[in-house]
Structures are given as structure tokens and as C-alpha cells.
Automatic annotation (TrEMBL):
Transmembrane segments: none annotated. It catalyses: (R)-pantothenate + ATP = (R)-4'-phosphopantothenate + ADP + H(+). The gene is coaX. GO terms for biological process: coenzyme A biosynthetic process. Belongs to the type III pantothenate kinase family. Its cofactor is NH4(+); K(+). This is Type III pantothenate kinase. InterPro entries: ATPase_NBD (IPR043129), Type_III_PanK (IPR004619). It comes from the Bacteria. Homodimer. The keyword Methyltransferase does not apply. GO terms for molecular function: ATP binding; metal ion binding; pantothenate kinase activity. It comes from Bifidobacterium magnum. Catalyzes the phosphorylation of pantothenate (Pan), the first step in CoA biosynthesis. It is an enzyme of class 2 (transferase).
Length: 255
């Protein structure tokens, strides 16, 4: 069994992969003050829910965009599993080329997403990750990331809305039943949803205008499913894309 870990700004997402099949998925709130013991206890408890123990884990691979969490999380893997985890970064084979101005600036999560998308669906494609930030990365037919775009995530926009206004409440980010809203909560939900949906479609449209040739659009991330049925501009929604990418990267480096 391999544990694939995506350490993001909002959540740490764990995937238990057995012979390439995802047999468990769990989320932990990202907190820089969690200790190695706390992380280790949570992971072993998640394993136990599936009838597994630490002895069943052969290796761990991590993609992280939160450096301040890495020390305690990595120490938890070493202490509870006696494994020095593989970390996506310089020197790791990914099967993806990066042709942007500063390749090292590309997030490990974006790189894993692109590897998962390219080796699962082929290229060319635009990989959209609806996370704390929303990222768009274009992968050509040869598996090369040539350009990308970063904007706010819808949950981040929502937090800014109620955090910077005295009388607006904290709300659940969800697709509203109608844009014809009659109270503050649903008005906020509709405003956020349709603003974000429209922006997503316009960005994808602009990629189509400026790129010579057609491409697939593959979306992932915790809130990607919310837009799946609302637009025909997204071809595939794959919530497990990061795990597929990490599994591919692991296999390329396992020796």
C-alpha cells in the first residue's frame, strides 16, 4: 500500500492506494501547530477504519505547498511508519516537462495534477484545480506544461466577503437553486457561484482563443463537482486526479 498525500493551504488530503486502486480518502485541516504525534495518530486511525495497520504501508509520497507543515508531517511518517517519504520536488521524475519562466515556482500539487491528467486522459489539455487558489495549467500533446493562470478560489473569495464586511454572515459555499434570491445568505451564494462560474468559462474561452488547436478541459479539487453540470466547457471532473498523479510519479521513482 502507498499513501499519497496532498498538503494544501486549507486541507491535507490522504489517499490510500492499494495496487493502484484508491481504497480510502481522508481530509485533515491544515494547521502548522499540529505535532508529528497528532498527524501520526490521525493517519493510523484512518488506516484502522479500513482494517489496515502501519505495517501494511510500503511507502508514502507527498506533494506540499505549505513548507511550515512539512517538518512535523514528515516526522510523523518517519516515527509511525519508519519510512522516509518521497517528496515531489527537484530531482523527482514526473514524466512532465515544464517550460515556464521559473519551473521551480510551479506548485507540487499542480505538477501532480498535470501528471495525473496527461497520463490518464492524454494531451493536449487544460488542467483546472478548484482549491484555495484556482489554478489553470496547459499541458501540450508532448506532456509539457507551457503556461498557466492563478486566481482566487471560491471559498477564499467567500471568506474575504464575510470577513471584510460587518453585516454579511459566514455561509456555506454551494450552488443556489435560483439567482432570484430573497435573503442575504442565498444572495451571497448566488453572487459567488455565478461570478465564479462566469469567470471560469471566460478564462477557458480565452485559452481556446489564444491556443492553436483543440484541447480537453479536466477539472479537479474539492469544489470542482459543483460546476460540472452547469457548463459544457469542462470535459472531465476527476476529484482523484492528485492521487493518480502521485501514483504515477511514485512509480517513476520507486527504484
Amino acid at each position: 500500500m502507498i499513501i499519497a498525500v496532498d498538503i494544501g493551504n486549507t486541507n491535507i488530503v490522504l489517499g490510500f492506494l492499494q495496487h493502484g486502486t484508491i481504497v480510502g480518502r481522508y481530509r485533515i485541516t491544515t494547521k502548522s501547530d499540529h505535532t508529528a504525534d497528532e498527524y501520526g495518530l490521525m493517519i493510523t486511525q484512518f488506516l484502522a477504519l479500513h482494517g489496515f495497520t502501519a505495517d501494511d504501508v510500503d511507502d508514502v509520497i507527498i506533494a506540499s505547498v505549505v513548507p511550515q507543515v512539512m517538518h512535523s508531517f514528515r516526522m510523523s511518517i518517519m516515527k509511525f511508519f519508519d519510512i522516509d517519504p518521497m517528496v515531489v520536488g527537484p530531482g523527482i521524475k514526473t514524466g512532465i516537462n515544464i517550460r515556464i519562466d521559473d519551473p521551480k515556482s510551479l506548485g507540487a500539487d499542480c505538477l501532480a495534477d498535470c501528471a495525473g491528467a496527461y497520463y490518464t486522459y492524454g494531451g493536449p489539455l487544460l488542467v483546472v484545480d478548484f482549491g484555495t487558489a484556482t489554478t489553470y495549467n496547459y499541458v501540450d500533446e508532448r506532456g509539457t506544461i507551457t503556461c498557466g493562470l492563478i486566481t482566487t478560489g471560491i471559498q477564499t473569495a467567500a471568506a474575504a466577503l464575510w470577513g471584510q464586511t460587518a453585516q454579511l454572515p459566514e455561509i456555506e459555499v454551494t450552488r443556489p437553486k435560483s439567482i432570484l434570491t430573497k435573503n442575504t445568505e442565498t444572495a451571497m451564494q448566488a453572487g459567488l457561484y455565478y461570478t465564479f462560474l462566469g469567470g471560469t468559462e471566460r478564462i477557458i474561452e480565452q485559452f481556446h482563443e489564444e491556443i492553436d488547436g483543440d484541447f480537453q478541459v479536466v477539472a479537479t479539487g474539492g469544489l470542482s463537482g459543483m460546476f460540472q453540470s452547469a457548463t459544457d466547457m469542462i470535459d472531465v471532473v476527476d476529484p482523484d486526479l492528485i492521487f493518480k498523479g502521485l501514483s504515477i510519479i511514485y512509480e517513476k521513482n520507486a527504484d
